[in-house]
Amino acid sequence: MKPCTFEYYKPSSMEEALDLMHQYGGEAKILAGGQSLVPAMNFRLATPGILIDINGLQDLSYIKEHRKHGVLIGAMARYSELEKSDVVAKKCPLLHETIPYIAHPQIRNRGTMGGSLVHADPAAELPAVMLALDASLRLRNKDGERVVAITDFFTGMFGTAMKEDEILTEVAIPHMPKRYGFAFDEVSRRHGDYAMVGVAVSLNVDRKGRCEKGKIVFFSVGDAPVFAEKASQLLDKQNVSEELLENIANVASSEDIEPGSDIHASADYRRHLAKVLTKKTLKRAFDKALA
Amino acid sequence: MATRYFGQRIRRNEDPRLLTGQALFTDDVNLPNTLHVAFYRSDYAHGKILSIDTEEAKKRPGVIGVYTAEDLGDYWQRGPLLVPPPPIKDIVFNERTQVPLAKDKICHAGEAVVMVVAESRYIAEDAVEDIEVDIDFLDAVVDIEKAMTDESPLVHDDIEKNIAAHVVQEKGSYSSIRDKAHTVISRKFIYDRGTAAAMENRGVVANWDERNQQLTVWDTTQAPIPIRNGLAAMLGLSQSQVRVIAPFIGGGFGPKIMMFYPEEVLIPWVSKQLKRPVKWIEDREENFFSTTHERGQVHEAEIAVAEDGKILGIHDVFVHDAGAYAPYGLTVPINSQCTLLGCYDVPNYYSEFTAVFTNKPIVTPYRGAGRQHGVFVMERLLDLAAQKLGMTPVEIRRKNFIPQDAFPYDNEIIYQDFSPLVYDSGNYEPALKRAVELIEYDKFIKEEQPRLLQEGKRVGIGIVSYVEGTGIGPYEGAKVSIDPSGKVSLVTGIGTQGQGHFTSFAQIVSEVLDVPVEDVRVVTGDTLEFGWGAGTFASRGAVVAGSACHEAALAVKKKIHKLASEILEASEDDLEVSGGNVQVKGVPDTAISLGELAAKANPLRGAVKPGTEPGLEATSYFGPSRGTTASGVHAMIVSVDPETFLVNIERYIVVHDCGRVINPMILDGQIQGGVAQGIGNAFYEQLFFDENGQLLNASFMDYLLPTSLDVPKIEGDHIETPSPLNPLGVKGAGEAGAIPVGALYAQAIENAFHDCNLEILEIPLSPNRLYEIISQNKTKEQI
């Protein structure tokens, strides 16, 4: 379990990092927190020829509020920084609620927001939560930058819309609407494990308590985080009721997802868990929005 | 008997070294000019080797040597059969042991094929990737029940139907009572594979010193002396030329007493070839394939009971997964066969097993060593019978316990140590009673459970009992000597893997010589210091080596009395050893310190009289006539989330009887650790093999060990029924925590769903599996 030989660069500025990406592109891997990449390299599942360590870049771990764009988070912000951030707690409560579910404290001290999104592990929490929050991602290369909506970002198993020479620099999470509710939950074998199924719910209601906009997003049930489109649509203009929750949970678990089987959970069990979690989290999200 | 040291909660002598990171482990041995080893291991579980191309690997800068089976010449030999088949009538036994490097055929995934020696492990691993091995892929033998069929492929071409062994043991006549029984219950039980997953993987460092013609080997083995003896024989050296050191080891649990692992054969050999130190440290991925596994049995079992719940007989036919090779003979399945009988008076017993070879890693004993399978089957049968008869699990166990006055109790079959399975002593009823009290069994059933069920909570209670054969021979030894400083040195041959030997053994000696425990310096597992003995296994350290420590301390005490009687001109009977001194009883003015006496026993002038020895030193050996039988009762309360089927342990009680307790704190630790491993085996850990014999979860990401969040604090109590078979009255305790946990989980979860006709007949469980079992909603009317 020793990695293959690789060349190691540690740029001290973004420009230098982008130059390196321009030069090496597909051969190179960005080293952020290393919590997925380094084990993969030790198992020789990943064998990058070039490693570009961006831990030397000073200005990439901010968490700040922006009047127009919501909460802006630098790609190198560690999970533990998100966990302790007042801005996140107040302005992105769904994210705040999610962080403790991610792995263990030691891993959260190293792992980064950007690393998790770019790695695009279908079993990871953050991609699903960002999908539920309608985040947008700022990508840079030597030629400039572009902003990609999270809905266009994930392209399949460990796949993203990033170009070979791009670096993710920032995530923007829009402001919460009024009468906002949210919930996160997952079922894992042990605390900190990858979930067998997880779900993030984000919604807001009108003055009469009817859902205006709601998003239900699953993870660990497909090749990428899965937006439960049919179920989410059923929320439209609805007041919360037992029947509604039951109906939506049924649709979400039977129509919106196509989970696979592995050694920890069969597809059938995953659907069952998706249903259980959908009901629980939707109820909690409504309760918060109506409070 | 009043004691000062024996039986006390004394802090461990070894902990300062361990807790401050000062203790020496094998990977800490860094000698100048050390070479490093990596292995090419087969990706396939079964296949014929057509060709091996190592040319590219040899060319890689930094590579010193690349070795295949051919390169080993005559040194290539199969490993020894460690335990020959016991003397049981009509036994079938087909011997097949492991090889250092696969020569013609691959028999399991991960089997070593080529050894690469290089200047660093990095280079060695790079060179492994340069190697090309052309393998003709064969269908793999994976399912143990199908392994015995005519259609099955053969793991070893000359062993028909993959049968490693077939054994029948019988007591009384089951067939004669079956028809007379009030109730007969038959079920199929499955106990699947797991791995010990010790915190420290295996490792070997060898250094051949050409000038001194001396080989030193640091090895994570539980049996340094047999390793020394074997290496000397294989390498054509005298035993005095080989020193094997088993330093501190991060957990043994049985797999580290497999002999010889290929690496243990190869690393010393290649060090001698290259005349340089050579190091191999197993990584976690290798550990999943190349360290031995355990579990893996399927039982078709039947219990016949009378109307009052009395067991009339048990009939059990099972298949045991031996893995690709069986160096340990029949130890594991014989343990299952014998331990099944448990604490119960079973007048008629028929037990038949077939051990089969499969294309999976080797199976050797791992904490419990087959005992949990037997316990699982027996305890489950009792639970099913109790339910059928309208009895509680407590009642049916109490009904069938061997009564206290029936010991020694002869089970009339042969145990793993080849002796008849005779329980030396036991007293089961008080342990059951105490466990019932501690867990408040009746209150739970009558009040708590109905109340919680009303709130929609699924909670269940379980209570199971078991015996554990411990402390088997052949023998161990110990050397005790007193320094002129007054401190005591104690050396024993067995290795240590965290059991607290540096303290328990010291306590035994301290009790005899009345010196503080911290003044007894203990050395274990270094063949240069002590060269006779077998090793640490079968919960035997305290019983066998501990008794040897006791005998040696007594012999030293005798020498103290003898020499002091000459100096003090007093009768030996009038002397006492007390507080580090020897004196005439009750006359402190006559006191001579033990250090002073030791100096006098090693004079610089004058002669040591004929027939006497210098020093206050003695070596003693202890070999028990047969094993001691420990026992216990485990009880727990679980809650099961009725939606997710996640299980949480609310309370866990162990009432344990291992005879006289040397150090209750160390014993508590053993029990806590054992239960943790048992919980892992029952609910978290499972090795998944696909139809090609590929292990699907060879990492801690997917092989789930219980963490501190999943293991509750164990509550409990001890019952002390001394063993008559050793001077200390002790019995083994190392495996007790792990043995009955599977049976307990099954009973407690069933109890949580007592209104749902749930039957749990397999281990390990998981939330996914519980969901499946409950969804299938099996009915109980299959009887």
From TrEMBL, chain A:
Record's keyword annotation contains Oxidoreductase: yes
Keyword terms of this UniProt record: FAD, Flavoprotein, Oxidoreductase
Domain of life (superkingdom): Bacteria
Pfam annotation, one family: FAD_binding_5
InterPro entries found in the cross-reference section: CO_DH_flav_C, CO_DH_flav_C_dom_sf, Diverse_Substr_Oxidored, FAD-bd_PCMH, FAD-bd_PCMH-like_sf, FAD-bd_PCMH_sub1, FAD-bd_PCMH_sub2, Mopterin_DH_FAD-bd
Molecular functions per Gene Ontology: FAD binding; oxidoreductase activity
Coiled-coil segments: none
Gene3D superfamilies recorded: 3.30.465.10, CO dehydrogenase flavoprotein, C-terminal domain, Uridine Diphospho-n-acetylenolpyruvylglucosamine Reductase, domain 2
FAD-binding PCMH-type domain segment(s): 1-178
SUPFAM superfamilies: CO dehydrogenase flavoprotein C-terminal domain-like, FAD-binding/transporter-associated domain-like
Name this polypeptide is given: Carbon monoxide dehydrogenase
Species in which this protein is naturally found: Uabimicrobium amorphum
Classification lineage: Bacteria, Pseudomonadati, Planctomycetota, Candidatus Uabimicrobiia, Candidatus Uabimicrobiales
From TrEMBL, chain B:
Gene3D superfamilies noted in UniProt: Aldehyde oxidase/xanthine dehydrogenase, a/b hammerhead (3.90.1170.50), Aldehyde oxidase/xanthine dehydrogenase, molybdopterin binding domain (3.30.365.10)
GO MF terms, alphabetically ordered: iron ion binding; oxidoreductase activity
Record domain Aldehyde oxidase/xanthine dehydrogenase a/b hammerhead: where: 20-139
SUPFAM superfamilies assigned: CO dehydrogenase molybdoprotein N-domain-like (SSF54665), Molybdenum cofactor-binding domain (SSF56003)
Classification via InterPro entries: Ald_Oxase/Xan_DH_a/b, Ald_Oxase/Xan_DH_a/b_sf, Ald_Oxase/xanthine_DH-like, AldOxase/xan_DH_MoCoBD1, AldOxase/xan_DH_MoCoBD2, AldOxase/xan_DH_Mopterin-bd_sf
Zinc-finger among keywords: no
Protein name: Aldehyde dehydrogenase
Organism per entry: Uabimicrobium amorphum
High-level lineage: Bacteria, Pseudomonadati, Planctomycetota, Candidatus Uabimicrobiia, Candidatus Uabimicrobiales
